[in-house]
Amino acid sequence: MAVVAALALAYFTAVRGLHRPSTGTVGPPIGRTLPYFQLEPLTGDSRAVSLADLKGRVTLVNFWGTWCPPCRREFPGIVALAAHFGGQEKFRLYAVSCGSGADEDLAELREQTQAFLKSNNTTLPTYSDQNAASRRALALVLDPEEFAYPTTIVLDSAGTIRGYWIGYSPGSEEEMRTLIDELLEQPAAAIAS
């Protein structure tokens, strides 16, 4: 019964992500900060990340799942953003691989993520959000009913949310790229005000 409920929740969340319009740079979470953020390394050459690590850098955080059709469609765009901005010291991208159920088996998540990355010929480092703590904190900022897969946020160097996209809409990667370019061009003092 629990497996059926978890699969139904995952399906519902993924289907919501298919039909939800991209939200961009206007909406309730814009200008807010995350109350909590903690990621653990999952694949690649990554290290643990906390809220303090977001300060001083423009950051894109993408919550996605290998099981999620809209996430799989968005993934090449996220990889392209990582490649485009990868050489910039003032930018970070955290691809957070999420399981389809409430209880994520870390070994299984790692195995599924590695297989997905291999099938897509990429070595993008990925992270896990243990106990969904960062997702729950983000859902409080967005609205618990709004979170779906994929969910992507862009934060400025002060750690303030400047853009968010729930679900996947073709072209949202270009909106993300434009916003990141704008934020990278701003002096730190202008962002903090």
Low-confidence blocks of residues: 1-21
> For the terminal residues, how far apart are their CA atoms?
51 Å
Average pLDDT number: 86
| Strand line-up in the sheet with most strands | 2-1-5-4-3-6-7
CATH architecture: 3-Layer(aba) Sandwich
Overall structural domain count: 1
Helix fraction, binned, reads 40-55%
The portion of residues forming beta strands comes to 15-25%
Class based on secondary structure composition and strand pairing: alpha/beta
Taking all Cα atoms into account, the compactness measure Rg is 16 Å
Largest sheet: 7 strands, mixed
The ordered string of helix (H) and strand (E) elements is: HEEEHEHEHEEHH
- Tell me the number of helical segments per DSSP (H or I, 4 or more residues long): 6
